């Protein structure tokens, strides 16, 4: 529809009115942060957004992300105006069971029109970068990605990672709209209404920047027009607004953040807005023309095959398998944080350069790009050193709320990386990834396992994490062996095992060595390859406890908390008197630089330590 | 000392030579990334750094942080040139047991001249912001904070958080030196040698920027001179360099990242550098004049007192106690991420505005500022919503390697925050914080406990985390009660307890309600307030298992992994047949918006769920 200044104003006031009504009905929420952006969103919804509300997952849709998720009431008011939800549902805001949550959430808890959960600030734009990159370079669709940001969240470094990468990749289909309302939660922002500085920053990061009065609908319209005509770079609209704009006693008032208008004041507030009837409905433009050129071919995954006994690092098998997945599945995309020659993602890059996204050293953007890519149907595999995923834990956490399907591959786990020292050693990544809702956590010890699990990962829902090892290790399994998420392998066993030793990654190889050393002395142990931590193979563990003298020894290249031992121990939580004795070998002191096997010995997680533990039983 | 162009060049070549020698001796490391910055660091060490190497922790020292920690060989070569370490020690680089680690590490593993561990990129400058803020505003010392950054790490958002805050606080004592050598690990950076863009970005963030040829020692000297004269803002020196500069076959060569010069090429390389004798020693300028004006007074902490039964939120008690700590200890500093009216850090702010640092919505900078503050003897308390500390997990992890003493306070834990929904609910923070090496994890259920534990926290070493609750809850304990890190409280017990219910935070109150409901039916349970998760009160837990029918019920407002249950379960890991039956009530489905007690019920972690669990035993 082609709006007029009056129609835009009327719609904006309805959006304000609905934001006030819904939050006051809920008794909490963010009307003031919604009202500042109402004019910006009215013009967008009326004239610029191309979105088929009857087909929200259509890859040809524009995308609208409220990076300032607390302005959710405005977003829901837009959905109402677009006839996507009813006024009755709007008024269920913040109630248990409602899809209209306090911050936007996708299905199943929330709405199909919400692509990603927001509410932890500074994550919408980096996600938008992932979507826009895919639209521009993979699907070659003419869609636009519109991201509404608050000015407070411009303080988040993640926003500047997105500015940087958006500029670097000339994402002319990406429009950042900064709702510069000057007031944060507890008071003024750093820059207040100094839109010139925001503009300078955006330009310095390679963006086309436009300063406007965000309450002037004609200026807003002109800005979108200008944005639509920019063909070589992303656009940043810096819109000067007033928080609570439209109602005199809320507008630009400090202390009105996150507060519903008291019931007694609602009538007065709505009167100032001209008592909108709430019956405006907008016929939103449908999808733009064009068909996606991205390939969605599906073939058969042919995992790489490794000769038994040869030494190959699991991180290298990750690269081999990723490349093989690339051949089989057109929607597999690899992303890496400037370490692709260490994670071996560069094997994929060399084979499928067009489906490889380099995000440089910006791990928050790495995960957010993956989240953006899966919004538009890609299967993203994001890789960096396992330690550095800690940089993006909040993005991963939010991804779980968004119910994203992404795959994360962390290389260089544990002390066994050696000389580089503790800063590069992931020793808490398993704790982090296990704690993510609905996550899958894999930790192969062998390249054959790695290759097989990669075939499972590609179709696994949720956030799937694979931990790999820097060191080259002997191939343990032939390509005939099968592996599954939730499985494990009994590598060694006998009729009279004194204990079962449970390892993963490099410690499994130490367990095998220990078993061989002990066997030479006539002592037998079971050795279990616990390559899947979450879900975990309860049956095999319980059988081991029963059959191995009720004794388990867990050996892991990880801190004591949150890794293999906590995972195994949880299996036996309710077992009471049937609980095995569990001995735990793990990293307990801060490691230093050193040779990998020196460090395994120093941490007492090597074969010698296992042998000593078994003998001391 | 006052150097000359020739002395600077000679020193630079010695630094290069020593970087090559030490890494080639180690067989790994980063000579090329060291060589690019050798001229920059030679002039700095010779003429501009004020640092008493015999008294590294003197608060009056300048600070030098290698944000590009992989250039550690250069840093160690500087220490050698300053006679702080011997050539023999330099050659222990990367060996186990050496203080000369692959990336810089402070004591006890590393060196006293290293203030913070680096190696995860983009963290040096934010730490420098904390130090510079303290020097400028608290201690009012004329020292300088010099931070050497790589150009690759300019992609990290955390760097831009530091640029932003450094500019905002006019930190004219902070100098960022960008070693723009054009090449990252796997290839060219985004911006290559485009120093003009780095300059524009720095200026847009409020910095004075200087572009120079970083291999021209006279230009470097002029830049430091210019930087010394800037009195109103921080300074960014963008230095164009060549990676591997000084040796023709390494300089600006792709693929020479993180590689020692092969033994066969060392002689040739050193010859190109003029075969430095390695005997140059620099008399580094001592501390600058001035005495710190920051108060270091120590009085007696007078914890706030609450009336029994009144309802007060633990987050509010955090604010009360923080203010009381501020009165008692002059070195207590509060930092907050723009939510001080929610975390109640604003109580401290109002009382001691000069010791309150607002870092706006930049949680990475929040933690890094705390790390910087403790470098110079402050006791920083950093607060934000518990969920948002996930944003800074990598900084926290690195802080553990640095052996920092910081206090982190996360408010708004769990589903009980209510209507705001999942994005604001910390449900994995305990898993995260427990996995941090040497951490202390506290989770008070009552304001009296909160106030008491705050008195313990201030002097507790390492990273101390306190989780607080949004909801107001009844005061359980009188001010006479004592609490200690590693302690717990038995809130209810009888001679015939059917089980022990273990809770913390809001779930403890649910456990108490459940006990009352059950008591009315003649069923007795023990209730344990597990306010210290790490360290944990093993004795009380073991006694409870023995005395309460060998049955423990753990109730927590957290995901299943990494919280109370894993902590308690770990206590019994080795107990075999004496292991209690442990039932676990925790959050298992993605929560939505709703009223706090509706959400506790929906998650089945409320009193009714506890009652049902006890009855089903």
Salient structural properties:
homodimer; 617 residues; alpha/beta; 7-stranded mixed beta sheet; elongated
Structure, explained:
The structure is a homodimer of 617-residue chains. Chain A is α/β, with parallel strands linked by helices. Chain A is built from 22 helices and 19 strands. In chain A, strands 8-7-9-10-12-11-17 form a seven-stranded mixed β-sheet, sandwiched between helices. The longest helix of chain A is centred in the N-terminal third of the chain and has 22 residues, at 5-26. Chain A is elongated. The termini of chain A are far apart. The interface between A and B is large, with 114 and 114 residues.
Summarize the entry for a quick read.
2 copies of one chain form a homodimer. By secondary structure, chain A is of the alpha/beta class.
Could you give the topology of this structure?
Two copies of one chain form a homodimer.
Chain A: H1 5-26, H2 31-35, H3 38-48, E1 63-66, H4 72-81, H5 87-90, H6 124-138, E2 145-150, H7 157-168, E3 174-180, H8 195-204, E4 208-213, H9 217-229, E5 235-240, H10 263-272, E6 311-313, H11 314-328, E7 332-336, H12 340-343, H13 346-351, E8 356-358, H14 363-375, E9 379-385, H15 393-401, E10 406-411, H16 429-434, E11 440-442, H17 447-457, E12 463-467, E13 472-474, E14 489-492, E15 500-503, H18 506-519, E16 526-529, E17 532-534, H19 538-547, E18 551-559, H20 564-571, E19 581-587, H21 596-602, H22 607-615
Parallel strand pairs in A: 1-2, 2-3, 3-5, 4-5, 7-8, 7-9, 9-10, 10-12, 11-12, 15-16, 15-18, 18-19
Antiparallel strand pairs in A: 6-13, 11-17, 14-16
Helix pairs in contact in A: 1-3, 1-4, 1-10, 3-9, 6-7, 6-14, 11-17, 14-15, 18-22
